[in-house]
């Protein structure tokens, strides 16, 4: 069961209260990002009446929603704390408004799904995540290796391509332009991948294309499915230097997009409706993610453009850079996956 969903207050009314009175309060300038735990918030607001829960209001870590048993307690807290320094909360001046809980079915693109830490919790077939796939020492060596090589700059991030170049303008690779074997510094990763859980046999992991991405703090990745016609069934992504959240979205039947959103360096404008399932997972440094089967072909994956992520009620700041190694195998024949509805226009299914 997910966390409650709350509407952001609309403007301010007399006495500082936004919207209609409710037992839920939206409290700004208060939260883990400013050094105030949810337990401490619960304790202070509990002085005005029983508190049912304290929830993150958004991804900032500096705004929360405090839920009381009734409107009387919420009104008392609002009148006592809004716009005034609170000695029990580090002397911070709180900005308090009423907040209305919405049914989960009304959630939209602005809501954040519950973030899981293990792939099995998402229940997406073909999704795997191994923590500590490499050691800190190996991570340092990989970063040094790519930093000794030239980067190509995109709009918001830098990339390197090995084996075959991924063309962002066509969302594909030219299989006739082989750039050579993958670099020696990833040989141990390829060997380790051959024993990855979920592989039917080692031959399934004969990977020949590598894209290295460097994301500055606050930069993510727009929702996309890796082009069916470009790559085979397995996509491995190794996270280095910093953590992030990856979100997965599967559009429901009849809600498929007519605009192209398969590119990996575009924007989110192609998401024209909200009829999709959403799930999210936390990717710590040195973890290896595998997208296969349904997870690879039918779910858009997406990295929110955040500087702070909230995982299990904890605020996690993104580091100054995050680097990912994405390993794939270039497709040389038609796509035979079981998800033609989610296929790009260049793919052909038998």
How would you sum up this structure, described in words?
The chain is α+β, with helices and mostly antiparallel strands and 350 residues long. The chain has helices spanning 38-45, 71-81, 136-147, 187-193, 293-297, and strands at residues 5-6, 24-28, 51-56, 63-68, 85-86, 92-93, 95-99, 101-102, 115-116, 127-130, 152-153, 158-162, 166-167, 172-173, 209-216, 221-224, 235-240, 244-251, 276-283, 288-291, 300-303, 308-311, 314-317, 321-328. It has a 7-stranded antiparallel β-sheet. Strands 9-19-18-21-16 form a 5-stranded mixed β-sheet. The longest helix is centred in the middle third of the chain and has 12 residues, at 136-147. The chain starts with a strand and ends in a 22-residue tail after the last strand.
Write a short abstract of this structure.
This protein is an alpha+beta fold. Helices cover 12% and strands 30% of the residues. It has five helices and 24 strands.
Main features:
30% strand; alpha+beta; 350 residues; seven-stranded antiparallel beta sheet; 12% helix; elongated; disordered C terminus; five-stranded mixed beta sheet
Please bin the fraction of helical residues: 10-25%
Question: What are the segments in which pLDDT stays under 50 over at least 5 consecutive residues?
Answer: 12-17, 103-110, 254-273, 345-350
Main β-sheet, spatial strand arrangement: 10-20-17-24-15-12-11
* DSSP summary, beta strand count: 24
Number of helices in the DSSP assignment: 5
The averaged pLDDT comes out at 83
**β-sheet strand percentage:** 25-35%
H and E order:
EEHEEHEEEEEEHEEEEHEEEEEEHEEEE
| Main β sheet profile | 7 strands, antiparallel
**Span of the ends, CA to CA:** 40 Å
- Computed over alpha carbons, the radius of gyration is 23 Å
Structural class based on helices, strands and sheet pairing: alpha+beta
Shape: elongated
């Amino acid at each position: 069961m997910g966390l409650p969903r709350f509407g952001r207050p609309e403007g301010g009314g007399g006495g500082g209260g936004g919207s209609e009175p409710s037992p839920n309060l939206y409290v700004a300038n208060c939260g883990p990002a400013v050094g105030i735990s949810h337990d401490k918030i619960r304790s202070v607001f509990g002085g005005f009446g029983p508190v049912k829960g304290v929830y993150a209001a958004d991804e900032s870590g500096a705004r929360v929603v405090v839920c009381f048993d009734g409107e009387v307690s919420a009104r008392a807290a609002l009148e006592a704390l809004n716009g005034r320094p609170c000695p029990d909360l580090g002397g911070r001046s709180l900005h308090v408004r009423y907040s209305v809980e919405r049914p989960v079915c009304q959630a939209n693109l602005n809501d954040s799904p519950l973030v899981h830490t293990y792939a099995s919790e998402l229940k997406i077939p073909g999704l795997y995540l191994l923590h500590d796939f490499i050691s800190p020492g190996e991570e340092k060596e990989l970063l040094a290796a790519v930093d000794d090589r030239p980067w190509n700059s995109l709009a918001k991030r830098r990339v390197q391509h090995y084996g075959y170049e991924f063309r962002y303008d066509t969302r594909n690779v030219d299989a006739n332009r082989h750039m050579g074997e993958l670099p020696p510094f990833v040989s141990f990763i390829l060997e380790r991948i051959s024993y990855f859980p979920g592989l039917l046999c080692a031959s399934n992991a004969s990977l020949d294309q590598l894209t290295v991405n460097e994301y500055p703090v606050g930069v993510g990745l727009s929702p996309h499915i890796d082009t069916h016609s470009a790559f085979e069934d397995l996509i491995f992504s190794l996270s280095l230097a910093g953590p992030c959240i990856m979100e997965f979205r599967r559009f429901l039947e009849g809600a498929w997009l007519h605009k192209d959103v398969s590119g990996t360096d575009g924007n989110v404008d192609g998401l024209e409706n909200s009829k999709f399932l959403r799930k999210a997972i936390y990717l710590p440094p040195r973890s290896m993610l595998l997208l296969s089967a349904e997870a690879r072909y039918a779910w858009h994956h997406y990295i929110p453009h955040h500087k702070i992520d909230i995982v299990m009620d904890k605020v996690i700041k993104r580091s100054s850079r995050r680097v990912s190694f994405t390993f794939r195998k270039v497709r040389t024949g038609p796509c035979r996956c079981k998800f033609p509805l989610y296929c790009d226009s260049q793919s052909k299914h038998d």
